[in-house]
Write a structure and sequence with these properties.
The complex is a heterotrimer of chains A (about 80), B (about 350) and C (about 450).
Chain A lengths: L7 E2 L4 E4 L4 E5 L1 H11 L4 H11 L4 H17 L8
Helix pairs in contact in A: 2-3
Chain B lengths: L3 E8 L10 H9 L4 E9 L15 E4 L7 H15 L3 E3 L3 H9 L1 H7 L8 H6 L5 H8 L6 E4 L2 H5 L1 H4 L4 E4 L5 E4 L2 H15 L3 E5 L4 E10 L4 E12 L5 E6 L3 H14 L2 E10 L5 E7 L6 H6 L4 H9 L15 E3 L9 H10 L3
Parallel strand pairs in B: 1-2, 1-4, 2-3
Antiparallel strand pairs in B: 5-8, 6-7, 6-8, 9-10, 9-12, 10-11, 11-14, 12-13
Chain C lengths: L10 E4 L18 E2 L2 E2 H8 L3 E5 H16 L5 E6 L6 H10 L2 E4 L2 H9 L7 E3 L6 H9 L3 E4 L2 H14 L3 E8 L13 E2 L4 H10 L4 E8 L9 H21 L5 E3 L17 H4 L3 H13 L10 E4 L3 H4 L3 E12 L5 E5 L17 E2 L7 E7 L8 E9 L6 E5 L5 H4 L10 E4 L5 E5 L4 H7 L12
Classes of the chains: A alpha+beta (about 80), B alpha+beta (about 350), C alpha/beta (about 450).
């Protein structure tokens, strides 16, 4: 999954989508995930990274991550893979 | 002599095509002769134009809607007060007045002054009570009835001639020509403003308005009558002109004397062809067209601030007839960075 | 390396124009304990969901209400409205504080007697009193509030037969300027029906007209209606005194005081707009004192307020069953509290608090109950933090009506516990068991033990 290029995110969690003109508010963990996505990390790599760094177990994070990625998709913030 | 500096918070910065009174109030304050204001804007929404008007508002804070409860609301006001040392707050929106009136004492202990009607005055003139209000103070009021459901609508025909006005508890009014339209507007208004919805007899005539200020002891400090010259499809004045109408002024003076009205009010009246005056509504606050009164010689926002601070204010005795306002819209330019700052920190 | 604190990732669209709660440092309020007892411990001991009542709050609320009236009027008597919450432990607290019992059915009447309330301290209201009920009430010297002419005539027959005097009052309905008008209970004031009933009673042997009663509506947000109502009852008392030289002993203003819950459709929260006991007391007592009633014969003021006395004392603790995304990406949280036990969610926007520390990030959420029914919605829309499965939630202000109107539907009614003034927990109503329901049922012989 790849975040659309040009999407700008501030460290304070403000994200602006220049394609649609919409703005978003993200919490710190969400910002961290967006950064990993921008580095073109895969879902599995993100899970591995998070479980290593954060106080969270794999099952919980996997469930939360999928929900979050579904929201990114819902807001049309990711490149549709061809 | 150097003018006293005052920190004044103002709400209603929604200077849109259905404008809140905030910006016109601020224009009056900026022209005050007795003090020099620093204006703290209080905004509910992140696109209220006033937030972005740097020559009008020195600093803006977002505040939660009164709907979220007075404790949350007051916490936010206290936070702002700690940073800005507010001396006066001028609330300008109907939906927030109840909360501010209830909090008057608490605000005062913090050193924040308001100048609002008493809760009794506020309740008495509310739309569902307007008939009783008219009876009590000897002023003609179109017949009206609060309704709470469909069964009430079925029975309207026995009591009212169509068309009737269908009005929301706080805002909005629609003219309905039959039951189906009443039901339609009832649903719309009740979902937006809650119950009851008010049905009002439709009186034909010219709409005339007065902006007035009472000192709470029966004296009218200011009163300027205006006729709307052009009304938008939202029912808002696009242009208006100050008029000389001694009858209307007399009605205003009487009303303020009898009710001992404290604070600003807007009287919405209909003058029929027979020359009778019907009271349609009393807005217990400054109206959006108040700058016309300022231009005509009565700086109502300034006088209100001085009354709030407990100063003696001499009643205005005259105003210029034939002053006009013509409303216009204007595209200001903002930047996403301003929007970001406001959205993320609640301040700008 | 110490691990970073984890918080579920959240993305929220900032809606241009409409209010946005972020950055405004409004904190998510949580409720981790009730009267100092952790909600977690209560659930561990009594399961989830569980109703919790605070004896301290009940007593303090009662005392506050009593003080508001007592300080303004010389003779005041409260009667506990059984239908609002007739758990015996709750009734006993009110009786201990000095409340009489106000009942509206034979079932409630017997409950009051079993709770040790003397017959002459029971007010019997409502349109449904059987002949047996009436006879019992007359014999016990209870106060019978007559609702309609059919009841009046039944009672006339009964007192004639048993030759004992009945102490009666009539319930009066009237226009108090509020909407909707409650005209289905009692005799109407404006059309003269109430006066007719009074005359009929005054001419009946063995009937002593001791009181006048009204109950003008429920959830009254305006105190003025009580001023009007008290004035009208006072008028009837004065007319009765003039015509018959008979002094009414009490005026019963019923109940209907609002609690601090927010009604659906209300713009401002109930806790900001609901009048205080002092407001209601001022409206009622000043109307009576300013009336034409002879001060020598000032009637006792009876009050039957239920909701406002008990709502704040009740809490419902439940837990999260699941989180979901609806098809439109909206967040939904399912909890184990359904409309079957939280009946009042049909008309209140109940507050809901997380029962443990949680994220400050919130999302617009719909909160559903566990019933397999579409109507089972606790909150249509609430800014709520994301909770994980099994996290606790606390719903305050559920003390009124829920523990009487609850339904047994697909599951069993839960435990109800009381926290006493020394912070001890007492189970005051046991969770129902399958056995209870089995005992009530009879399967005809030919349907027994069928093999499927």
């Amino acid at each position: 999954m790849k975040i659309k290029s040009n999407i700008a995110i501030s460290d304070n969690g403000f994200m602006f989508d220049p394609y649609s003109g919409d703005s978003y508010n993200l919490n710190a963990t969400a910002v961290a995930i967006i950064k990993l996505l921008k580095e073109e990390k895969t879902r599995d790599e993100i899970i591995e990274d998070f479980v290593r760094k954060y106080d969270v177990d794999t099952f919980t994070f996997e469930q939360n991550l999928d929900d979050f990625l579904a929201m990114l998709n819902h807001y049309d913030l990711v490149e549709q893979s061809s | 002599m150097k003018k006293e500096k005052l920190n004044i918070a103002v709400t209603g910065l929604n200077n849109t095509d259905n404008p809140g009174p905030g910006i016109p109030v601020i224009r009056g304050l900026r022209e005050a002769k007795s003090f020099e204001p620093r204006i703290i804007g209080l905004a509910y929404e992140n696109l209220e134009p006033g937030i972005y008007m740097k020559d009008m508002v020195d600093k803006t804070y977002q505040i939660p809607y009164p709907k979220s409860g007075s404790d949350v609301f007051l916490d936010r006001i206290k936070y702002i007060h700690n940073r800005e040392n507010l001396e006066v707050i001028i609330p300008n929106l109907d939906a927030e007045l109840y909360t501010f009136i209830k909090a008057e004492y608490e605000l005062k202990t913090l050193g924040i002054h308001t100048f609002l009607p008493t809760l009794q005055q506020f309740e008495e003139r509310s739309k569902p009570n307007l008939n009783a209000f008219g009876e009590k103070y000897g002023i003609k009021v179109p017949k009206s009835k609060p309704i709470a459901g469909y069964t009430d609508i079925q029975n309207l025909q026995a009591e009212f001639d169509f068309p009737v006005l269908v009005k929301g508890k706080f805002y909005d009014a629609y003219l309905a020509y039959n039951n189906e339209q009443v039901i339609n507007y009832f649903n719309k208004l009740s979902s937006k403003w809650g119950l009851p919805v008010i049905i009002q007899e439709f009186v034909r005539g010219t709409e005339v308005n007065v902006v007035a200020l009472g000192d709470g002891k029966g004296t009218t400090i200011a009163a300027v009558p205006m006729r709307k010259q052009y009304i938008t499809d939202k029912g808002k004045a696009w242009g208006g002109i100050t008029i000389q109408d001694p009858n209307l002024l007399e009605i205003t003076h009487n009303l303020i004397r009898k009710t001992q009205w404290r604070g600003a009010m807007e009287l919405e009246m209909i003058k029929t062809i027979q020359g009778e005056y019907y009271l349609i509504e009393i807005n217990p606050r400054i109206p959006a067209w108040v700058y016309l009164a300022v231009a005509a010689g009565q700086n109502i926002p300034e006088a209100l601030v001085n009354l709030a601070l407990g100063k003696k204010v001499k009643p205005f005795e005259k105003y210029e007839v034939g002053k006009m306002f013509i409303r216009y819209s204007f595209d200001m330019i903002g930047d996403i960075s301003q929007f970001e700052k406001l959205s993320m920190t609640g301040e700008l | 390396m110490e691990k970073l604190k984890y918080e579920r990732p959240i993305i929220n669209k900032i809606k241009a124009g409409v209010p946005d709660k972020y950055g405004m440092s409004t904190r998510v309020q949580i409720k981790t304990d009730i009267e100092g007892i952790p909600v977690k411990d209560i659930v561990n001991q009594y399961g989830s969901p569980v109703f919790v009542l605070s004896e301290k709050t009940i007593r303090e609320t009662y005392q506050e209400a009593h003080r508001a009236f007592q300080s303004r009027y010389p003779k005041v008597q409260f009667a506990w409205s059984y239908k609002t919450n007739y758990l015996d432990a709750v009734c006993q607290i009110f009786h201990d504080e000095g409340s009489w019992a106000e009942v509206v059915s034979g079932f409630e009447y017997d409950k009051a007697i079993e709770n040790g309330v003397p017959g002459n301290k029971i007010i019997f209201n409502g349109p449904d009193k059987s002949d047996a009920d009436l006879k019992k009430a007359v014999e016990n010297g209870s106060f019978i509030h007559i609702d309609h002419f059919d009841e009046l005539y039944s009672l006339m027959r009964i007192v004639k037969k048993i030759g004992k005097k009945a102490k009666v009052a009539i319930r009066v309905n009237m226009d108090t300027g509020v909407y909707p008008k409650w005209d289905r209970f009692g005799f109407n004031y404006e059309n003269g029906e109430a006066w007719n009933a009074i005359n009929r009673i005054m001419l009946t042997e063995n009937m002593d007209l001791v009181g006048l009663h009204t109950h003008i509506g429920t959830y009254m947000m305006t105190t003025n209606a009580y001023t009007v109502a008290a004035g009208k009852l006072a008028d009837l008392a004065v007319k009765t005194a003039q015509k018959y030289k008979h002094h009414i002993k009490y005026i019963d203003m019923g109940g209907g005081f609002a609690s601090k819950n927010t009604l659906k459709g209300a713009y401002l929260p109930g806790k900001d707009t609901c009048p205080s006991f002092d407001d209601y007391a001022e409206a009622i007592t000043s109307a009576l004192i300013n009336s034409e009633i002879d001060p020598e014969h000032l009637p006792v003021l009876f009050l039957e307020t239920g909701r406002a006395l008990i709502d704040d004392a009740g809490y419902l603790i439940g837990s999260v069953l699941a989180n979901k995304r609806l098809s439109n990406a909206r967040r939904a949280t399912i909890i184990d509290i359904g409309v079957n036990i939280l009946f009042t969610s049909f008309w209140y926007e109940h507050e809901i608090y997380p029962g443990q520390a949680c994220s400050q990030q919130t999302e617009d959420t719909t909160i559903y109950g566990p019933l397999c029914m579409n109507i089972d919605v606790i909150r249509e829309s609430i800014q709520f933090p994301l909770l994980q499965k099994n996290d606790l939630v606390v719903i305050p202000r559920v003390g009124a009506y829920n523990m009487t109107q609850w339904m047994q539907f697909i599951t069993l009614r839960p435990n109800v516990v009381l926290i006493d003034r020394e912070q001890n927990l007492h189970l005051i109503r046991k969770k129902e068991t399958n056995e209870i329901f089995k005992n009530q049922e009879i399967v005809p012989k030919h349907l027994k033990n069928k093999k499927t």
